[in-house]
Every structure is written in C-alpha cells, then in structure tokens.
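This section describes the prediction task in plain terms. A model, or a person checking by hand, is given the sequence of a single protein chain and must write out its three-dimensional structure as a string of tokens. No templates, partner chains or ligands are provided. The sample shown here is typical of the held-out split.
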Amino acid sequence: MPAISDDGDWGLLLGISAAEFSVHRFTADLAGLHHARLFARNVLEEWGLSSCADDAVIVVGELIANAATHALEPETCKDVTATAWLGLVRRQQAVICAVADPSSCAPQPQQPEPLSESGRGLGIVEAISSSWGYSPPRGSGKMVWARVLAAPDS
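The expected answer:
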C-alpha cells in the first residue's frame, strides 16, 4: 500500500476512481470519531442511500473505533496528531466502507466473554455487512473494508 500522506488523494493512489467516492481524514479523539460518523451519514444521504445509512454508519463506527483503538498512537507531541482515513465508494447495489490506518497489524476478530464490554466490533461488522476484509500490509499501514448492501431511496 502506498504511504498515506496529507498530499493528494489516497483513493486515486490505490486505484479507486469513481464518481461516487468520498474520503474523510479523522483523528482518534471523540470529536474526530463523531465527525467521521456524521460524514458517512451525510455522504450516504447525498447519494440517495438513506435506507442503508444506519447499517453503514454502524459499520463505519466499528471500523473507525478499531483504527482509533489499535492503530492510532497517542499524541507524541502537541504539533502532531495521528490520523487515519475513511473512504466511501458507491458501487452497484452496495457501499464500500474502508478505513486506512498506519498500523500493519491485521484485524483479529475476538471471541469475547458474554459480559465483556469490548471485542465485538468485527463481529458486528461481519453481521451487518455482506463481506469484509483487509489489505495485507505492504510497507506500512493497511486498509480494512466492509461491503454494505444498498438500495437507492424510493
């Protein structure tokens, strides 16, 4: 995967070229995660896909929470904040939700205890999406994606 920089469009670097492609950079703080979910909902509504917005926003929420928890380092100095990218691509009958983060660690589905407060994120993604996966690390970083079925609003 090419290095993700602040310059240019990482979607184009990865070969994603679509009329309905939208990207948003986010940080691991509460405001950053909130704005990423809001961004996803607004984009889906603009694309006329409000019927799948709830499911897609849940998937996005889990993917960005995983990136924030497992991939974004805490701030090491006040001038640098670790970021990741959320990309949405509309394809025929589906929306691909993808999160690119700087960690090369593969996502690992967990088997949490019944009363555990965490560890269910990828299980939720698997239950809601039609498929999910990740790009194997090449250098630094990875991309975790999920495909959510989408029918246009009537």
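For orientation: The chain has four helices and five strands.
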